[in-house]
Amino acid sequence: MARKRLVRILLVVLLVLLFAGYFAFSTFLFSPTEGDYEADLSTLAPESIDFFVAKADLAGDFDDFPHLKKSDAIQGTRAWGKFEGSGQWTALKKELGLDALVQRIDEIKGQTYGTNLIDVFGGRDVALAGNFGASGGLASAKWVVYGRANWKGKLALSLCRYPGVIGLPEQGIEAKVDGELFEFSGAGIPEPVHVTRIHDVIVASNSVDLIKKARELDGNGGQGSFGQGAQYFDSIQNAPRNAERDEIELAVGWRELSKALAVPERWPDAQSDNLWTAFVGRLFQLGSINRLAGVIGFDEGVQANLHADLSSELMTPVQQKLYRKRGADRAVFARDAARMVRNDAALFVVVELPLGDLLRELLASSEEALRANLEDLLRELGQFKPTGDAQTHTEALIAELDSLFRDRIALIVRANDYPLNANDAPHDEEPAPAWTIALWTDGSEKARLRIKELSEMVSVHYRSFGISGRDAGERGVFTNNCQPGNYEIWEFWSRFVPGTGHIATAVNGDVFLVSNHYRMVCEALNTRDNSRNDPTFPRLVDRPDFMRLANDSLAQANLMVWAEPKALAAIASRFTDRAVKDEIAARIDWKSERARVENQVMKDTFPGRMRSTLEGDDKARFDELIEGRLAEIETKLQTEQAPGLKSQYERTWTYLSTLSAAVAMLALDPKKLDLSLRAYVPLGE
After folding, report:
1. 37 and 79 both lie in a single domain
2. What range defines the domain where residue 379 resides?
3. If DSSP states are collapsed to H, E and C, what string results for 192-230?
4. For 333-384, how does the pLDDT look when each residue is reduced to its tens digit (9 = 90+)?
């Protein structure tokens, strides 16, 4: 009896202690039975934020923070070997202070008996949001971090109510508590950090207003939050997601970010001297983007779905017209366009835009001399006559091409690995990939005959187009048949075509092909008609990776790009020496150098004389000395800088080779654009 009574007393005492402990823990720290915050973290961020980045299941990406689960596979790639061996990784770690950060994390682990910090905070869900500074600078940005915490995280924050107990003053940290708001300052904290806890979510910010706003949004069910806004709903919540929904969620006010980064509003520069920079600048301006949002995932590669709101008032009339053109269904790209592409193509691009407008913008981006020469040539031919006083011969040509061809253009690029033979056109030794441009007609006999007439016109006026045969005075225009399909192909020989020395054209059904290699045209035609799956002409549409990536992309687009990065890198590597030489030459301010050298030559060789007084042999000697010294300067710089720059280019080609296949699609609209990107990254290679 005494024993039973003692047991009952002990049980009562234990229950009292448990109740008292629970009551004390709940009173002084937090309730162990409280529930988690049920809504998404985005509902704690105000709708007025300039940027938002979030990631779910961050702990799933790490073995033991900060060691990534895939770090061994990443470090086993050739690309990482190049990156690490170049010293770039060492320099980056030093710049970001990563070694010191890892050391500090290890110290904290040691003080907390090996606790994995990402389990304590942010492992299940973490988000960063905020506003850029009023001055547009990143340094003055107001930021806020939201992260789900486990019981250790909640306990750690609750204990901060008693800074003396946990030794914060000894660490030089001052903690102030005002109800549910904490403020930390002192050693190692550049500016006061404000913290609060909402259920299992710890919120930290350099702005007390963002902390108070989070508590306010929690109180009113998230009304007026970013997470309940249209941008999050349309571009993030309803974007194509994986089953785990653990992609990076991203939103940014581009106008505010561009100010913070000092990005020019007019970029690319439509007035650039570079043809392609000016051309792209006429088609798209980065400054027209207002807000950008979407998701980015990394399952076996990269998957991105991004949406941008455009400011149509900042777009040119031509851009608005181009963007109103409805894109093609992705099935059309695969069925009508990709069926002519061999499966070893390095690059395949399809554009669904008005051809005439593209040609006008391309012409406007070119040098004035080129436009004048083209106008003179067309006037001489007499084939394209203006229909009014305001129309030029060039515009008459563009108008005819616009009516002859549909609004679809394709570009195919592959390695120029075709064997040479004695009958090939004379050509220089410049490296050049093999490329083919495809245009579509309505498939009528009228269109086919008109293309033939244009070919015959070029044949008749071959001298005007710089066409010549193997010997001087020869015509340099040939027609031959491509086997096994027996297709007629025209060849126009010209030494102005780098690498191949000729242009080849062909018409088959509704497609017109223009290429810098006869054999590539022949392959494209036979591949297009390869309905019997002839292994000699394997098609891109039969590659499973292409079809998977394309079918997982946008349903409709104005632009589709397929890339085989390894093949592209192999092609690009042949241009390394030229690219290095051109980049070094572009770094030299020749105007200033010439002025400096001229002054030095006058001082050394013609002391006491004025340059304007040099004549005859003196003038010739002066010019010779100038050119010689400028050549010496360039040679010296090439010798000093070329090895390092060449290594940089070679590393870039290696990095590019890490991707095995990629598909990008872009859909345009005067008020918005949508971009999808899919790429495979085999880490085992």
Report:
1. no
2. 305-575+660-680
3. EEEEEEECCEEEEECCHHHHHHHHHHHHCCCCCEHHHCH
4. 877 788 899 999 999 999 999 999 999 999 999 999 999 999 999 888 888 8
